[in-house]
Amino acid sequence: MKVLVIGGGAREHALCRSLSLDPDVSALYCAPGNAGIAEVAELRPVDALDGAAVAALATELGADLVVVGPEAPLVAGVGDAVRAAGIPVFGPSAEAAQLEGSKAFAKDVMAAAGVPTARSYVCTTPEEVDAALDAFGAPYVVKDDGLAAGKGVVVTEDIEAARAHALACDRVVIEEYLDGPEVSLFAITDGVTVVPLQPAQDFKRALDGDQGPNTGGMGAYSPLPWADPKLVDEVMELVLQPTVDELRRRGTPFSGLLYAGLAITGRGTRVIEFNARFGDPETQVVLARLLTPLASVLLNAANGTLADEPPLVWRDDAAVTVVIASHNYPDTPRTGDPIEGLAEVAAEDAPDAYVLHAGTRREGDAVVSAGGRVLSVTATGSDLAQAREKAYTAVARIRLDGSQHRTDIAAKAAGLG
Ligand code: AMP
Ligand code: GLY
């Protein structure tokens, strides 16, 4: 099978790594990719938001499957363009990707499907905003309706900050605050059959102890020793299957990866948000634990034959990933700094620990930073404590001027306080 992966972050590196280890995959391409992905896939330049360009590239390469990593191409209809060229795509249509592209659409689908989520109002005028903020009280949760690359959500005790964010957006969703730990649960679906993956937890704040600004994600771990063993079954029944069924009923079936961002509240599990693609950095730890070769699972989802897929097989091992971000991330990250220590990790820590690249590029013989999140250092171990130790041992070998990382990824879950 020839596979083309679209994107160039650590999530796509994790996908490419798994696909490169799959004996069914005879050729692996990634566009545009990054310096790390180049070690496991052949890179091609492409404008990932241009459906015609991606379809032409997939056709030229004779791809049997295209896997779209990020949300923006999906919302822009890249999946539709490739499917129209007759090539199977892992990733939803633009219409179904509205589940991530519009918070108001997601709320409407959840209401119709009876999926538990925060109560909310969709507001377009200052009067509606004030009424909604009053109705829920602090802490205020104000979400830009559209895609905002993680920057659209403000959670604050400060009513003026909440109001200011709401007024800066054309359309906002204002909702009830959900208290409780967050869980990311991914499911692969062909629009009918739904196959859940293992749950993971992401660390969204920049600094230790969940302080500092929201980021794209500073680390993740799986499994979740503290979670109810019935969580996956419960979310399948209450959230994932009803959502997939509702989208099919509407004539916009969702195929690809359905990501449920959940809050485990005192009153039960609630959906915080849906995403229409694999999460980053959770994918790095979920795929580290998956033993089943990935390509046929993704192809069966793309082809509507997921029911034929045997049950997924998981390692008992735990996985931890620690994100190394550039100086000044998430505000105005500095790029172009050389990264050293990659060869040492490969020599000393593999195969249990390895470095997935996010924002990197090659400059001559050097690998330099090229984005906010630069590397996702991933490790497996017999439990979270061991996986975390191996990940941080590898992190300590990496040198990137001014870089930052959290030191508490998975610490609490590993019983370390
Ligand atoms: P979202 O983009 O919807 O995932 O929101 C980003 C982050 O904001 C989430 O991961 C939560 O940490 C927080 N958040 C979003 N909605 C709520 C809510 N209703 N209650 C509490 N926190 C929330
Ligand atoms: N880890 C959060 C996300 O992928 O949206």
From TrEMBL:
Cofactor(s) listed: Mn(2+); Mg(2+)
Catalytic reactions of this protein: 5-phospho-beta-D-ribosylamine + glycine + ATP = N(1)-(5-phospho-beta-D-ribosyl)glycinamide + ADP + phosphate + H(+)
SUPFAM superfamilies xref list: Glutathione synthetase ATP-binding domain-like, PreATP-grasp domain, Rudiment single hybrid motif
Recorded metabolic or biological pathway in which this protein acts: Purine metabolism; IMP biosynthesis via de novo pathway; N(1)-(5-phospho-D-ribosyl)glycinamide from 5-phospho-alpha-D-ribose 1-diphosphate: step 2/2
Keyword annotations: ATP-binding, Ligase, Nucleotide-binding, Purine biosynthesis
Gene Ontology molecular function, alphabetical: ligase activity
Source species, domain of life: Bacteria
EC supergroup of this enzyme: ligase
Coiled coil: none
Ranges for domain ATP-grasp: 107-303
EC number: 6.3.4.13
SMART domains the record matches: GARS_A, GARS_C
Family membership: Belongs to the GARS family.
Protein name: Phosphoribosylamine--glycine ligase
